[in-house]
Write a structure and sequence with these properties.
The structure is a single chain. The chain is globular. Helix content is 29%, strand content 35%. The protein has 183 residues and is of the alpha+beta class. The two termini are 29 Å apart.
Length: 183
C-alpha cells in the first residue's frame, strides 16, 4: 500500500513539472459521464476516446488531459499519445484552472488540437474552443440549466439557450449538457 501512496501524477509544462492533486468526486463524475457518452458513440469508429492518457507534444510538454480523442491510430503508442489529439477536454479544478486556461491552451493551439473544451464544475459550464487559422477561438459557452432556472427564462432567452452541444469531429453526436453534469 505504501508504494501506491508514493505515486504522484504529474505533467511537464514548458519544462516545469507540476504535481497533480487527486480529482474531487464531481470532477470524476463529469469526466466519466463525458467519456461514457463519447465512448458509446465512437464504438466501431476510427477515432478513439481516452481519459488521463499522457500526451507527449515535445520534450518540454507532456500533459495528462482529462479526455482526449485521437483519430490517427499511429499516434496511439503503448503508454502515451504521440502528438496532438484531435479533441481535448479539461475539467477545471482549483489547482489546474490557471494552467488549463493559459499555458496548456497555448500548447494545444501550437500543436493543432482542433477542439478544446474547458469544463467548469462549479459554474456547470462548458467553453468550446475551435482551432481557426491556427488559433483556438471561443465558439460557444454552454450552461447546465436547472428546470427551475428554465421556467424563469423568457421565451426569447429560452430560444437563445443551447441545451446540447456537438463535437466538431462528429456532427451527428449530440451531447446534452445536463448529462455531462449528472451525479
Amino acid at each position: 500500500m505504501e508504494a501506491l501512496a508514493d505515486y504522484q501524477k504529474s505533467e511537464l509544462i514548458d519544462g516545469v513539472v507540476y504535481d497533480m492533486s487527486p480529482a474531487n468526486m464531481k470532477h470524476i463524475f463529469i469526466q466519466g459521464n463525458l467519456f461514457t457518452i463519447i465512448r458509446n458513440f465512437l464504438r466501431g469508429k476510427r477515432c478513439k476516446v481516452m481519459f488521463e492518457a499522457e500526451v507527449r507534444f515535445d520534450e518540454k510538454n507532456k500533459f495528462i488531459p482529462d479526455l482526449a480523442i485521437v483519430c490517427r491510430p499511429e499516434q496511439i503508442k503503448s503508454s502515451y499519445i504521440h502528438g496532438a489529439p484531435d479533441f481535448v477536454a479539461e475539467v477545471l479544478s482549483r489547482s489546474t484552472k490557471k494552467r488549463d486556461l493559459t499555458v496548456k491552451m497555448r500548447v494545444y493551439e501550437k500543436y493543432g488540437v482542433k477542439e478544446y473544451w474547458i469544463i467548469d464544475p462549479k459554474a456547470e459550464s462548458i467553453d468550446v474552443y475551435l482551432l481557426k487559422d491556427g488559433k483556438l477561438e471561443l465558439e460557444e459557452t454552454y450552461h447546465n440549466i436547472s428546470e427551475e432556472e428554465w421556467e424563469e427564462l423568457s421565451e426569447e432567452d429560452r430560444a437563445q439557450e443551447r441545451l446540447s452541444l456537438k463535437l466538431s469531429l462528429y456532427d451527428e453526436l449530440e451531447i446534452k449538457v445536463k448529462e455531462v453534469f449528472e451525479i
